[in-house]
Each structure stands twice: as C-alpha cells, then as structure tokens.
UniProtKB/TrEMBL annotation:
Pfam families the UniProt entry points to: CENP-I
UniProt record similarity statement: Belongs to the CENP-I/CTF3 family.
The name this protein goes by in its record: Centromere protein I
GO-annotated cellular components: inner kinetochore; nucleus
InterPro entries attached to this UniProt entry: CENP-I
Lineage, uppermost ranks: Eukaryota, Metazoa, Chordata, Craniata, Vertebrata
Alphabetical keyword list: Centromere, Chromosome, Nucleus
BP GO annotations: CENP-A containing chromatin assembly; mitotic sister chromatid segregation
Highest taxon of the lineage: Eukaryota
Compartments reported by the entry: Chromosome, Centromere; Nucleus
Organism: Scyliorhinus torazame
Kinase listed as a keyword: no
Major location (coarse): nucleus
Length: 725
C-alpha cells in the first residue's frame, strides 16, 4: 500500500512539473512574439524615416539652407548601427559631392557612408566626375578620397576606376590631396600606367617638397615597373602611407560583423532583418585579409578580356595555375594573396618585385592600424591579432623572404611591449630581419632589456630565435658564395642588398651579442641546465660556419660558457660541449689548407690566435675528462687550475680524478649503471674501472647515444690501437 501511494504521489509531481514547464514555454513564446512585433514595428519606422531622409536630400536644390539635421540624424543612426545598401550610398554620395548643400552637411553625409555589404563603382566614378567640375570644396574632396581608400576593398569592381587613372593623377598637384592621391594611385598602378611624363611630374614635385614618403613610395613602384624611366636612387624601405580613415574602418568592421542580411527589393534601402540568435565566430584574418578577386569585375569582362586574363576566383588547383601561368594577373589589393597558397606559389616563381612591394605596403598599413588598436585590454582582440601575425610568419617562411614592414613592427614591439604580449610571434619575426650596420643598436639593445628582466623560459626562447637568425644570415652568405663561384654576378651583394663584408660584420656582431648576454644570463640563473642547452645549440651553429656555410670565420666560446658546460651536472650539456669542440676541430683543420686569396673580398683570415685559443680549451677538456691533470695543466685565468697544496688541504680523496669520465658528476650515473651490469654482486666500486674495464666503459658510453663525447674522444685522443692518429 505504501509503495502504491508513493507511486501515485510521484506521478502527481511529474504531472505538476510538466504543467509548470508547459506554462513557461507558453510564456516564452508569447514574449518572443511581442519582441518580434516590436522589432518589426521598429524596422518599419526606421525604413520609413530613412526613405524620407533620402528623398529629402536627393530632391534638395542648390543653395538649400542647412536645415536637414533631423533627416541627417536618421541616416546617421541607421548607418552607424546597421550600414547602408549600395543604392543608398550611391544616392547620398552624389548629393554630398554635388555641393548642393552646405559644407557641414556634405561632411556629415560622407562620414555616415558606412556600407553594409559593397560599394558600387558607379558611385565612385560619379563622385570623381563631380571633382572635375570643381564644385565640391577641397576639404570635401580630401574626405571623399580618404573614404574611398577605406572602402577600396569593398568596391564591386575597379575596371572603370582604372580607366580614370590619368584624371586621378591630375590631382597629385594639390598639396592637400597629394598624399591620398598617391596612395590611391599606388593601389591602382599597373605597368601600362607608368609613363615618362608621370615620372617627370613626380620628380618635379619631389624637388619642390622634398623626400615625402607618399611620393617616394609611388616612385619606387614606378621604378620597379619601368626602371628605365626612374634614374633616381630611392630608399629600399620607404615609410608606409598614412592611415586614411581609421574611424570608418572601425565602424565598418563593427557593422559588417553584426551579422545582418541584405534585403532584396527596390523599396528596402537598408537591411533591417536580424540573423537568428546563433552567431558564428569570425576570425580576425578573415576580416583583415581581403577576398581574392580579379581586378575587373567578372560580370563586366568582355570575351577578349576573359581570354587574356584568368579570373582569380576560379583558381583552385595547382594544375590550373600551371595551365594559366601566363594569364594570371595580381589582384588590386595584394593582401588577398595571403589567403591563396597558389598565388604565393606564383609570387615565389615570377619574383615580381612590384608584387612584393605592394604586399609589403599593405601589411605595413594593416599592422599600423591593428597594432594601435590591440593594446592588451581585449583578450579576444589579442588572440585574433596573434593569428594574423602567424599568417604573416607562415607567408615569410613560404616565400623565404622578409618584409621590411615587419622589421619596423618588431622594432616598435621590442621598444614598447613586455615579454608576454605576442612574444612568440615577435621573436619569430625577429629571425627575418636583414643584416645591417645598426642592427645591434636598433633591435638588440631593446631586446637585451627584455631579456634580462624576463623569465628563464623567455631567455631560452630569445637564444633560440637568435640561433635561427644566425642560420638565416649564414645561409644568405653561402648563397652569395655559390653565386660567385658560378660567376652569376659580379657584384658582391647578399640577397638582402647588403655587401658581403657587411653581412660578415653583422654575423660577427650577432655572435658577440649572443655571447655577452648568455654569460650574464648563466650567472643570473645559477647556470641552469636548460638555458645552457640552448646556448650550446647556438654554438653548434657557430662552430660549423666554414664547412657548412662557407664562411671562414672562427669565434670560440668564452671561458664563461666553456667551463660551466665542462663542469655541468647534466650529461646532455657535457655531450653537447664535446660535439661543439669536435666541430671546431674539423673546421680549423679544413681552414689550415684554405687559400687565403679566396677571402680577400671580405677581409677574413684565420690567424694563429684562434688556433691557440682552441688548443687551450681542448687541453683543459682532455686533462679534465681523460688524463686527470685538469688542476695542474689548466692555466686559463678563468679555468679550474688550483695549486697542489690547496687541493691537499681540501682532504678530498683522489681529487686528481674528480672530473674524469668515470667520476664526472654528469657521467657518474652511467658509471654506476656500468658497474651494476658488469659486477651484479655489487662488490666493485668506481675505482675498479681501469685497464680493460676502462675500455669497456668507454664503449658503454658510446652505446648510450653520447655521440658528441664519442666524436670528441676518437678525434682528439691518441691511442695505441689507432695508428692513423
């Protein structure tokens, strides 16, 4: 009976809960209906007010008094929240550029032209035609060109705009318009646009105004397309253009990320219908990087043009790239190539300097804007910016080419940021900087401040980045030497337009800088084994510069690095040091037979001092690990030489053999394991490893993958069984 009553009670509760849930669902549906009605009513009101405002301004006649504030506020409210459709933008831009209204209203109209999707090209061409009538004031013209630069990637087509290149170039004579016109021309310039009279005009302007960044940038692009027209010496790394309209950019990004759909129909002048509540995450690089598209719009291409160029939208496979190799034309906005590995293959093959220069300027503009916005306050913004930097890093690695704008970004980041903000990406970009005479003062001095005030893990990352930078510089040197041997070029220039001797000087400064900070860091971190591992990795590259990279330069590790590694508690570090010394030996042996006349062009000559330094370090290592005379024969000022009477006073038994391969702290574990395997009874001690047991123990060490120790012992020690030594 009790069970039956409990079952009925439970069933009653279930019924009550079901009724309660059903009531909640009904209330939720009713609330949703009320919100939908309110939205619909708001949508209808906004649509009506927008139509009235557009009709007011389009019907306004010349010299109309500036009494359209209410209508303008209605347009601004909708534009800044949800954006305007192309038809509305075309109508309002025509009103603003016709100068029928007061300048104050024209300026506000231009500022509220926020596209919800795209911008019609006809609106831009009509606006330029209004500029030709001289009706809009110069301030309105400047504001229009700045707006055009901001929405350049959103233009539906650029074919008609390209045909107006000559008209646009005419406005370069105006001092206020000149910086923005140069930027616009830079985006539109093709090889056929470069004419001798245009180059002459730019040179005349430069002679009057000086080396302005916008003029230099456009001249540099002209020189790449037609070097026979530009005989001036221009800087290799011109400054980027000014940010044309960061206000518009932020608003457009906000509007187009809100997720509104376009409404179709002639009466619906703005999209006012919201998407469902489920929002899709959009990544920063998808917003920053333009969509790959052909310069002219596909719908406007004629048959002959379709036959001469291949639409980039249809380039999806590598076979298409090979079949249409001669028909591919770079997009108007070079930043879009970051989305296409196929276009990166194309850039890498054709080696078009103008394409790399345009891509460099686009990256400079984007980094300048995004770096200013990304101040660390927004975690999501920082993640998106990090992803964008990763795309740049992958592009540089793919092209095997560094961008000058990234060098400027690294310099700015090292000066103003800490070791946490994008540190991995900044150090990765650091490995692509070009060698120069002022690289130490520009990059390494601020890096040193971060290095000494950061954690040990950041120190290890910095040493690893400097190792990668050294490898890249040495690779450039080996390429130069190979080209000289094949007589490909008579000019001793590196791939980064640096003289060969200048490259060697930069390499020497890099090694000296890394050595200096490594010694101090080891003292600060109590000779940490992890840090020592990364430092010895660096010296593995330094020790093999001649045989691997054809650079006859020998820079030996200082005592502040050699002795901590020799007396390390870790067998990994000791094995690394032995391998480094072995590589030094092989390179010095090869340098003995080197003809010094081959290195006259870089002024290198390995003198006797380098051999003496190596012999001193080698003698210290051999006497420590093998001959048990380390305390007697080590005469280095920073070595471990100790007088005999002081050693006796320590009362350490058998102090002479304290650092042999048997008693060395880094190898003692191997020695104990060897004894346990050879004499399982456990009656033998370490001193039992001598005679034949010593040889067995050496073979045992070789089997423990201590290859560095093996190469060192076999190459440096004279044994009775190896007569060839």
């Amino acid at each position: 009976a009790n069970g039956w009553l409990e079952a009925r009670a439970s069933a009653g509760l279930n019924v009550l809960s079901f009724c309660f849930v059903g009531e909640m669902e009904r209330e939720a549906r009713a609330s949703a209906k009320l919100k939908a009605k309110a939205r619909s009513r708001s949508t209808s009101d906004d649509l009506q007010s927008l139509q009235q405002a557009v009709e007011y301004f389009t019907a306004a006649k010349e010299r109309t008094p500036s009494n359209g504030n209410l209508h303008l506020e209605a347009i601004e409210g909708i534009a800044f929240e949800k954006g305007l459709l192309p038809d509305v933008i075309e109508l309002l831009l025509d009103v603003a550029m016709s100068a029928r209204l007061a300048d104050r209203l024209n300026t506000r109209l231009l500022k509220c032209l926020i596209p919800a999707s795209t911008v019609p090209e006809s609106a831009v061409t009509n606006a330029i035609s209004w500029m030709c009538t001289r009706k809009p004031t110069i301030n309105v013209q400047v504001l229009f060109i700045r707006w055009l630069l901001t929405v350049f990637d959103l233009l539906e087509s650029k074919k008609q705009l390209n045909s107006l290149y000559g008209i646009i170039f005419f406005y370069i004579q105006n001092a206020k318009l000149c910086p923005y016109i140069c930027h616009l021309l830079y985006l539109l310039t093709k090889k056929e646009n470069v004419k001798r009279f245009r180059v002459k005009k730019l040179i005349d302007l430069q002679s009057k105004t000086g080396m302005q960044p916008h003029l230099v940038a456009l001249l540099l692009l002209y020189k790449i397309h037609a070097p026979e027209y530009v005989s001036l010496t221009l800087p290799g790394k011109p400054k980027s253009f000014q940010v044309p309209g960061s206000f518009w950019k932020k608003v457009i990004e906000k509007v187009q990320n809100n997720g509104y759909r376009q409404l179709t129909g002639n009466l619906e002048l703005v999209n006012l219908t919201e998407l469902p509540t489920r929002k899709r995450k959009r990544k920063m690089h998808r917003e920053l990087i333009p969509v790959v598209s052909t310069t002219p719009h596909l719908a406007e291409l004629s048959c002959s043009l379709m036959q001469s160029t291949f639409p980039l939208e249809q380039l999806t496979t590598f076979s298409q790239l090979l079949q249409n190799f001669d028909r591919i034309e770079f997009p108007a906005q070079m930043g879009s190539v970051l989305r296409s590995p196929l276009l990166l293959h194309y850039i890498n093959w054709v080696k078009d300097d103008s394409a790399l220069l345009r891509l460099d300027f686009w990256l400079a503009q984007t980094l300048q804007e995004e770096f200013a916005d990304c101040n660390g306050d927004s975690l999501q913004k920082e993640k998106e910016f990090v992803e964008f930097l990763n795309i740049i890093i992958r592009t540089q690695e793919f092209l095997q080419e560094g961008f000058s704008c990234c060098e400027d970004f690294v310099l700015k980041s090292l000066s103003f940021c800490d070791s946490l903000w994008c540190s991995t990406q900044i150090l990765a970009l650091l490995t692509r900087i070009s060698p120069s005479s002022d690289v130490i003062s520009l990059y390494f001095d601020p890096l040193m401040k971060l290095f000494f005030t950061s954690s040990i893990y950041f120190k290890c990352t910095v040493i690893e980045s400097l190792t990668n930078l050294l490898v890249k510089w040495l690779t450039w040197h080996s390429v130069c030497v190979a080209e000289m041997d094949r007589d490909i070029t008579n000019v001793l220039q590196s791939p980064q337009n640096v003289s060969l001797s200048g490259l060697v000087n930069s390499i020497s400064e890099l090694v000296e800088f890394t050595t200096r900070i490594s010694m101090v860091a080891l003292q600060m971190e109590a000779y940490n084994s992890l840090l020592l591992h990364f430092i010895l990795n660096f010296y593995e590259t330094v020790s093999d510069m001649y045989l691997k990279y054809s650079l006859p330069l020998v820079i030996l590790p200082p005592a502040g690095i050699f002795y901590p590694a020799l007396l390390s508690l870790e067998s990994v570090n000791l094995n690394q040091l032995c391998y480094v010394m072995y590589k030094y030996r092989t390179n010095l042996t090869a340098l003995k037979s080197l003809d010094s006349s081959k290195n006259v062009h870089i002024g290198l000559r390995v003198n006797r001092k380098a051999f003496q330094q190596y012999n001193t370090l080698m003698k210290a290592a051999v006497s420590c690990l093998w001959t048990s005379r380390n305390f007697e024969q080590d005469i280095h000022p920073m070595g471990i030489g100790i007088e005999h009477n002081l050693l006796v006073q320590t009362r350490v038994p058998d102090f002479v053999s304290s650092f042999t391969i048997v008693n060395h702290p880094a190898l003692m574990g191997h020695a104990i394991n060897f004894i346990q395997k050879q004499w399982p009874s456990g009656k033998k001690q370490l001193h039992a490893i001598q005679g034949n047991a010593w040889n067995w123990y050496v073979e045992y060490l070789y089997d423990q993958e201590l290859d560095g120790l093996k190469h060192f012992l076999e190459s440096c020690l004279h044994t009775a069984s190896s007569s060839e030594h």
